[in-house]
Amino acid sequence: MRKKISAVIIGVCTVGVSVLATGSASSHGYTDSPTSRQVFCANGTVQNCGEIQWEPQSVEGPKGFPESGPSDGTLCAGGNSRFAELDDPRGGNWPATKVTAGQPYDFRWRFTARHATTDFRYYITNSSYDPGKPLTRADLDPEPFLTVDFGGRIPDATVTHTGTIPAGKTGKQLVLAVWTIADTGNAFYACSDVQL
């Protein structure tokens, strides 16, 4: 009887460790200010989002953007086909956060698993951007408007970076936030639609 109980306990512990390991491996981070597409999917504001509605923190793809990283048209999903709904422009109808060009804004990341971090970079679309088409590198200003070096440190559970939305931006635009991990080959991507 003791052997059976011990086997059951060991089995339950093994399953528990496996579940916890899997959960932390698939849990990382996302932006919620301005509200990202994955958050709009997770909170039910946007429907028909597929798997991302349960995993807003998991938009992980290859790092090195913009020289490498996800291919054009897959940037909002980090090149991850499981979350392709994030790349669907939905006719330009993603909800947008109101921001003001030339004014400071607090950009916020929330983390469910924290990693040693190289940096955070924020890009914004240029005048050729069409909200009705999937995002490409050509749609973005070539340089980030905000870069926060992190020197390999591990961030807190929530981090806020204050940056200025570039002057002269008008209409519906998109902010691409990239969190580059120091000790893996990956980064996390978040697209936030904004209205200026």
From TrEMBL:
GO terms for molecular function: monooxygenase activity. InterPro entries: Cellulose/chitin-bd_N, GlcNAc_Chitin_IntDeg, Ig_E-set. Residues 57-93 are annotated as: Disordered. Residues 1-21 form the signal peptide. Keywords: Monooxygenase, Oxidoreductase, Signal. Residues 28-194 form the Chitin-binding type-4 domain. It holds the Pfam family LPMO_10. This is Lytic polysaccharide monooxygenase. It comes from Streptomyces gamaensis.
